[in-house]
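Lab notebook: predicted structure, single chain.

Context: the supervisor wants predicted structures on file for every construct in the current expression panel, including those that have not yet been purified. This is the next one on the list. No modifications to the sequence; it matches the entry in the shared construct table.
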Amino acid sequence: MKKLLFLFVLVLSCTRIETILPPIDGVIWQSEKHIAFPSIERLENDELVCVYRHGSGHVSPDGTILLSRSTNNGASWAPPDTIIDTRLDSRDPSVTQLSDGSLLLTFFQTRYDTLGKIIGAVGVYVSRSLDGGQSWFSPKMVI
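Prediction complete. Output recorded below exactly as produced.
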C-alpha cells in the first residue's frame, strides 16, 4: 500500500499573517516522501512562494528543499522546483523577500554516517535569488 504525504497548510487567526496571506486551507503538493517545514512569502508581484523540505523520512540524509509557487492567491500551486539539492540533508527552510526585491533563503544541514545515523549539524546556510526564486546563488554557510 502506497502512502502519500501532503504538504498541507492551514493558517488561522494570526493577525500579522492574515494581513499578508489569504486563508490557505489545502494541498500545495503531494508526495510519497516526507514533506515538512513550510515557509510562505507573498512577493511584491503578489505571487506566493512556499519552500519546504522533501526527503525519504523526517530524519533522513536525502533532504532537499523545494519551492512551489501560486499566482492566484493560493487557490492552486505549480509543481515544485528543487532549489537546494546537495550531498547533505537540508532542513527547516525559510524564505523572505528583502526590501530590494531579492529573496533570501535560510536553512541548515546535517551530516549522517554510512549507516544513516546523524553525526551532527553542519551549519546554517543562506542563498539568494534575484529573479523571484527562479534561480539561486550557491548556498553560503553563515555559522
